[in-house]
Structure formats: C-alpha cells, structure tokens
What does this fold into?
Amino acid sequence: MKPVTVRVPAKVNVQLAVGAARPDGFHDLANVFLAVGLYDEVTVERAPALALTCTGPGDDPLPEVPLDRTNLAARAATELGRRHGIEPDVRIHIAKDIPVAGGMAGGSADAAAALVACDALWGTHASRDELLDICAELGSDVPFSLVGGAALGTGRGEKLVPLDVGGQFWWVFALADGGLSTPAVYREFDRLSPHAPAPAASPALLDALRTGDVHTLAATVTNDLQPAALSLFPALKDTLAAGTAAGALAALVSGSGPTTAFLAADAASAENVADALRASGTCRAVRVAAGPVPGATVV
Ligand SMILES: C[C@](O)(CO)[C@H](O)COP(=O)(O)OP(=O)(O)OC[C@H]1O[C@@H](n2ccc(N)nc2=O)[C@H](O)[C@@H]1O
Ligand SMILES: Nc1ncnc2c1ncn2[C@@H]1O[C@H](COP(=O)(O)OP(=O)(O)OP(=O)(O)O)[C@@H](O)[C@H]1O
It folds into this structure.
C-alpha cells in the first residue's frame, strides 16, 4: 500500500466577530475564513502501530508540536478508525510550514489532512458529512481546513457556508517570536469585552469578497480578538505599525495571533511590504501568500 500525502492550507480570518462566552465555554462567532497558500503536508502509511513525526521548514525539528496521541492529526486518524472498526496503525509525518500556535489553524489543518489521507489509505470512503462531523468534534477551525476556499463559520465556527470570491487577495504574514494560547486569548477577550453583542457578518465585507474588491475588503476587515491578542502580546503593535507604514492596505492580527496579516493591493506590493517588514526587525519571519485556495487535497 503506497503512502498518501495530503496538502492543506493555512487560514486567515478576514472577519472575526466574537459574542459573549456561552455556557459551554465557547463563543458564538461570525467567522469569515479565507484559505491562503501556506501549506502543511501530511503523509500517512501503514505501520505496526500509530507513530508520528514532524519537521518544520528546512527539515528542522519542531519541539512545540506534540508527537503523542494528543496531536490533532493522530486524534483525527484514531477517530476515523474508531468509526470504521480500523486500528489506526499508521505512521503520520507532518511537514510543517504553517506557523505553530500562530493563529493560522496549523493543528486544525493537520487534523483535516490526516483525516483525508487515512480515508484514502484505508479506502473507508467516508461521506463529506461524516468527515465534517469528525472535523467539528476535533476543533472549531478543523471543518474549514477540510473545505478551504472562503466560508462563513457560525456557531463556534464549525457551521460553514461557502462564500463566492471574485479574485485572489495577496497577503503578507509576519511570524512572531513565540505563540499565543487560543483559550488564553478568548479569556482575555472576556475580560476586555464582558458584554459583547451577538456576532454578525458584515454585508460590506461579504460583498467585497464576492466582487474581489481589495480596497473595500481592506476597509472592512476586523478581528474582535485583536485587542485581547495585543493586550497579551503588546509588541505586535510595532509589527502592525511597520506593515501599515510600508503601504499595506490593512493590518490585523490573524485569528488569535500572534501572527499578523497585511492585505496588499497586488503581488508586487505584497513583496514590497514583505521586504519592509523583514527590514523592520519587528518579527521573526515574513511570508507572502494569496487566497482563496482549495482545502485539504490528496497530492
Ligand atoms: C481563533 C480561531 O482560530 C478563529 O478561527 C478559532 O476560533 C479557534 O479555533 P480552534 O483553535 O479550532 O479552537 P478549539 O480547539 O475548538 O477550542 C480551543 C479553545 O478556544 C476557545 N474557543 C474556541 C472557539 C470558539 N468559538 N470559542 C472559544 O471560546 C475555547 O476556550 C476552547 O477551549
Ligand atoms: N498537528 C499539530 N500541529 C501543531 N500543534 C499541534 C498539533 N496538534 C496539537 N497541537 C498543539 O496545539 C497547539 C496550538 O497549535 P496550532 O498551531 O494549531 O495553533 P493555532 O494555529 O494558533 O490554532 P488556531 O488558529 O486554530 O487557533 C500547539 O501549541 C500544540 O501544543
């Protein structure tokens, strides 16, 4: 049986509207996801027992990523196997390019990729609905990593409606030194915004996506978690200012951070903003990527 490799993109939240904490501890969202061309690759092959390896860019080891059964990719394989009476005896290798704990849904991406890869390896032919159901069990961002493109996520972000997008948008991502814990950022949000109103998607933003109008998109992107992320990681303000000074049309924290995202007018201005951010000394690394791109796909 040949190994199966699945490529899966990162996401940026072009709108992240957050409501008050629910009794189950999650927050209702109006979460407008866009999949962007920064990818992890997950390879699965049959093995005597479940085993996991992970390398980062340049084949470097990534000590922050757990290699036990708590890894979201291992949990995805285990859950698909459980539902189909299959022991998850697979070796999973994650080639990681999505920043870890960066607010770009890296772990979620690996979970969606492992699910699609094991489904192909085992020939389980799970329906799209079953895969989405497993994704939602694994985490709020995981269903979007499966479908990719652009989508509005409601509930805790797991209920998706696909969105039409009328073009490609160019982004620059500034990677920060260190990560932010998603639950900690939501807790800080609760502290800063104890009476948050019910979240709603912005009609102007959805229209900008539909028409591919980058200037209107830049004027309408928002992230309700940004004040919380900046409160926990104040140095990100300098990165946002550096990208804005370099000509980015919009600058915002990506999801729960600490990656910051800069919308550029086109590919050439994205490269200019990227060069300026690299020179600014306000971030660890800089990447350029466009979206939308498809979700988890067998290569
Ligand atoms: C910040 C985002 O990345 C934006 O897309 C997501 O909302 C986070 O999605 P995720 O990492 O898949 O989150 P999950 O693994 O489902 O939940 C992790 C923790 O984040 C918080 N959480 C997550 C999603 C949500 N709608 N409300 C929350 O309060 C909860 O404390 C939860 O225990
Ligand atoms: N496959 C995985 N890749 C990375 N981290 C993982 C993985 N599985 C579990 N984790 C754990 O999850 C934590 C969050 O990592 P992840 O890269 O998913 O964060 P994130 O991109 O900020 O998530 P999100 O944007 O969905 O909130 C890590 O610190 C790590 O302990």
